[in-house]
What does this fold into?
Amino acid sequence: MRIPTFSILLLLACVTAVSACASPYSATGPDDWAAIARNGFSADDVGYVLFDPDSGAVLAERQPAKPFAPASVAKLPAMAAALAVLGPDHRFETTLHITGRLGDGVLDGDLILKGGGDPSLSSEGLTELLRDLGALGVTRVTGRFLYDTSALPEMAEIDAGQPWTAGYNTGVGALSLNFNRFRFDWARPAAAGQPVRVSAWSVSDTGRVPLDSVTVQLGAGAGAGAAFTPLIAMDGEPANGEPGGERWRFAPQPGMAASLWLPVTRPGLAAAHVFRRLAAEAGIALPAPVPGAVPPTATLAALHRSEPLEVLARQVLRYSNNLSAELIGLAAARRLDPAVQTLPESAAVLTAPAMLAAPRTDWTGLRLLNHSGLSAASRITPAQTMALIQGAGPAVLALLPGEDEGKVLPPGVRAKSGTLAYAKALAGTLKTAGGRTLGFAFFVTDEAQRAAMDRTMDRRIAEIPPEARAWLARARKLQADLLELWIAGL
It folds into this structure.
């Protein structure tokens, strides 16, 4: 895959606005209407465009100018823009720096762990850094152990409209580890009078490490059906004597699982604590971590590099990890504008070149609040999605998976899916029965039901309502029916 090093305007150059063109079958013909009605939807809920990616000719469309919630389809333009800005060979770096004097295994100075926004950083990556540090002979640090997160803004969650306990709505920051999730384990007492046993772990492919930045307080107060309540902002006291630690109140609920995945909301501190634990296992004694910055006089002691961005982008488009999308998008946006501090600002910076490159596309109504699509308030039209698909180009579209949420799509379909309660989307390319490769963007959203759910949301409850799950099942069936229609139609 070859992408120009830095020519986002050329890479994202889009063809003219979507226009109605002659089609071998009607965009709103009997099959289209039948599929929509058969699955229990109103025609106003559905929007799509089916097009020739080379000529821009529209073969079928429904409400191409209506804004819909993109959900994770937003990751497709984010990855395309990031590849254009940073280049497919870009690698994220996590580094260790030292100050002072090293002698007889003792570093008489500071050790600094600096994050570079690596979305794939794991405990194994930290172990590599420690291996290099150990090779220098370090066994103890008399100064400070600092963690530096200055490369990117740090935030406690991606979207404030999600449940507190949603493992997909994590904190975001330059020093993010193990996808910023932790596993919470608990066990009821073996005998009366004994306490409930609880533990928090940072988990990677090769093992788990106790997460010392998390404190869990047992007791009532979470509320019926809600096991967890965050306490970070309730009393203002630091966890473990350190500012910014995470505190949760846990009230066991009947029938709840013994292990749950919860989001890390202070990623830099959590990663530093895991590093300290791993250092102790490696025979290197470190003081408690505190935030800081790498001074100009520091010496680089170790370096860990991620896989190339092309590999990471392919993983994002297949596995749809929200944190990875946000970190990659933030890195690209800050390359263009170092002043970016929020996810909405970052999304706007990455979208602007595509809009400039396609001036005849109607960009009215476009509103992307982040790079992952984790927001019920983001909006995009089918026509705008078409322009972004064409701007992404064949090299990026080749990274798309042939599956939707782990389920195999029909042969010849490669697409990015998106799912929120009362919102379903799919965008990419398909191969027709006649052998043609076409682009498509499909959306279905129930605005009223989503708005009603948001008005009554209890952030302590992570599960979506049963009626929303039933709605999504119908939306997936409509998606399958339309794909079948489009594949057979040409």
Notes: The CA atoms of residues 31 and 485 lie 8 Å apart.
